Amino acid sequence: LSGTVRPSRAARDLVEAHPFLAWTPLHQSKWAVRGQRRDQSGIGRVSRVVDAPEARGASEAADGRLLPEAWAAAQGGEGMDRCAEVVFEGRHGRPPV
Question: Whose CB has fewer CB within 10 Å in the chain, the N or C terminal residue?
């Protein structure tokens, strides 16, 4: 997959409505700079698209995926949209998110 994306105005609502996703402070920071041409940190690259993201490990940083307990509780969601993993390149020595 290729292509770049910016968070849309409805991004938070879409993430919160999905049974396997959670809005994080990192999502908020990228969403807050949407539409600002000066700030390119709000442009991400689609790295993959999946039907349902895998649960994240307890030692992994919050990235929008649910922990195993919440992920198991979300099983059986009907009519849910597919999920895209978007990577935002790090700037000023910070790692990508």
Answer: N
